[in-house]
Amino acid sequence: MAVGLPAVADPTKVTPQDARALTKVFLDRLTELEEGTHDYQYVRNTLIELNLSLVRYAARRFRNRSVEMEDVVQVGTIGLIKAIDRFDLSREVEFTTFAVPYIVGEIKRFFRDTSWAVHVPRRLQELRIDLAKANEELFQRFDRSPTTTELAEHLNLSEDEVLDGLVASNGYSTSSLDAPADPETGTTRVTTYADRIGEVDPAMEVVENLHALKPLVEQLGERDRRILQMRFGEEMTQSEIGAELGVSQMHVSRLLTKSLTRLRRGDADAAAARDAGRLGRCSVVEAR
Fold first, then answer.
1. Predicted confidence (pLDDT) per residue in 31-73, tens digit
2. Which of 47, 135, 228, 231 is deepest in the core (most CB within 10 A)?
3. What are the structural domains of the chain?
4. Is 0.70 topped by the overall pTM?
5. What is the DSSP letter of 180?
6. Within 10 A of 212 (CB to CB), how many other CB atoms are there?
């Protein structure tokens, strides 16, 4: 025990009124001691124990969160320690008044940094809280869920800002893809969210290819388009196409080769143009 201080057998059992009086005495003594000494550590540790009730009082505001209360108290204690280290007796402010914002701030910072399943900007985290309060208030007023417009008017925000906040709220908590999607179906086969995720449709590539080839095919002559239609649309052989057009099979082969080469070259040029366009847009974005 430091010289000149009252003995405190168990600081955690001191009444709040006595704790306030002892806190003033110990804070005054702390300013006279050299940091790192045994007496300094004793006084500082006693101040922490004397004011743990402040931490528990502040932590009760967060008791409905999905975090163990003991963890919240530990985080709040960090705020209490910061308040003790930064308190200035010359300000003539009650230590309780000074310490509570530090404790609450540390707890809020903990929830902001660790509770969200997906990291979102602090502005949107705070907007989520405002939206929850506004939604509850307007629900009681209208006896129904408020619209986006009503929320925007109530919070004096634009509808786009409200929508951003609502979307960001989805990042607060997440579920596993292996969680049951229909827990009450009563079937032996449990459907999970992963089962409902769509797969890549192989037909999409065919559609994209047809869309890319359409303007190129239109540039071909009427006879060349007819040959392509008979060969790939009607699946006729080159001999059958030759008989239909009155030309040799060899001539049909040369015409097909010429048309396909032209289409491949045009498709490659179009792909290069698309890539160049994407690179150009990326450069503009980076420049901005």
1. 888 888 888 888 899 999 989 988 998 888 887 766 778 888 8
2. 47
3. 11-114 (1.20.120.1810), 117-173 (1.10.10.10), 204-287 (1.10.10.10)
4. no
5. B
6. 15
Q: Which residues contact 62 (CB under 8 A, 6 or more apart)?
A: 72, 107, 111
What distances in angstroms separate CA 75 from CA 69, 70, 160, 173, one per listed residue?
Answer: 10, 9, 35, 21
The number of beta carbons lying within 10 Å of the beta carbon of residue 23 is 23
pLDDT digits (tens, 9 = 90+) for 185-212: 555 566 777 777 777 777 777 787 778 8
Compute the distance between CA of residue 139 and CA of residue 136 in angstroms, rounded to an integer. Answer: 5
Helices (H), the chain: 16-30, 38-50, 52-59, 69-86, 95-114, 122-142, 148-155, 159-169, 203-218, 222-228, 238-245, 249-287
In angstroms, rounded to a whole number, what is the distance separating the alpha carbons of residues 222 and 182? 57
- What are 165's two structure tokens? 């906040």
